[in-house]
Amino acid sequence: MKKDTSSSISPIFLIIIAFIYALFLFIYVRPMLQAHSKELVLPEDTVYYDSIEVNTIFLKNEILFGSEQVTEHKLAYDEGSRLPFGVIRAGKTPSKDYQELQRDLSKTLDRISILQQEISDIEVLLRESILQKKYMDVESLVKNFDYLYVDHSGEDSIAALKNKEKTIREQLFRMNESIGWNPPGLISYVTDGFEAYSTSAFQDMSSLEFDSLWEKESSHSIQGYFKIVDNFYGVFVFKVSDVKQFEPYMNQIVNIRLEGKDKFYKGRLSWNNNGEDGKVAGIHVNSYIEDLYPIRKATMEIIFREQPALKIPTTSIIQYNGISGVCVKDINGIVQFRPVEILKSDKDVSYVAKGNSSHMIENGETKTRTLAFYEEILKFPQLDKIGKIYRR
User: Fold this and answer.
1) What is the pLDDT of residues 56-74, one digit of tens each?
2) Of 179, 168, 188, 193, nearest to 94 (Cα)?
3) Cβ–Cβ contacts within 10 Å for residue 160, how many?
4) How far from the centroid of its chain's Cα atoms is residue 116's Cα?
5) What average pLDDT score do residues 72-96 get?
6) Residue 233 and residue 60: Cα distance in Å, rounded?
7) Rg, Å, the chain Cα set
């Protein structure tokens, strides 16, 4: 019997062919399908905030107390507790003179720190000049050293400033001898060296003084001291770069949002009285101080207005007959152009006005149908598709 020698397809060959076909689909066809699936997107219903971010310093009315009752275990009151008047007997007279002396002491210590750094720099230069035998430079540097340190060189020498520091501390100590009682407010055991800058400091603060205060480092809490914070009033002070942007909202209530806080706060916006044509402004708050009092410096978002909006890809916005808008697929599958009012736009996303309940926006006396939240947008629109059936 003659054996059948006709050729047959090997199963291994079929598996190889199927694998190549699957690989082709994965590499070429799958990305095309994905691209088509991402061509239509729905707008995101959201809220647009017309806002600006600034660096701010929170000024409060704080009175610093020293008391024998303050130990490592502190007083019998938790941080942030609200106290009525006269529950703690403390050794400090809460007067304006005391606060002025505290402020003067803080400035004196800052100046001593600056001069000490200058002396340190001079010492380095002296060593270098001696090693390089630049004796003329040595003589000049020694004179500078003498000016900065020796007592008779003037009021702005370290010796003179240290004498001033000693005098101020003695005055503060004598004032501490009188017995006082705490005023009402929030108790805090955290002191930072800014207590002397009360809300009244806002009115005369210049932009240079703001910069200096912003750069000033906080000091560590002083053992044996606590402070009472006025829980009815505070001012968030900040510098203004664009005066015209703030002018329409002066003396009005605005919303603010602070880093580390997940809620909005309200305050009244105002210029101060330093005569710098509105370079320093403040937001006056009189509520939620119990939430805000731990803040000294922060990034603050000032929200001028908010309105319902739709968030869309920036690539979906085109110009049609000189009007900005998007292309949508309507319920009949026809591509339609929808004019939009752009609130804000960047590289990736844009915010457009939501329109009224009938999805209309007003331009003067004219009302125009705009984008609705349920309409699918063409992410990459083409003008020649308008009025035609949408096809992938």
Assistant:
1) 999 999 988 776 555 444 5
2) 179
3) 17
4) 33
5) 69
6) 7
7) 35
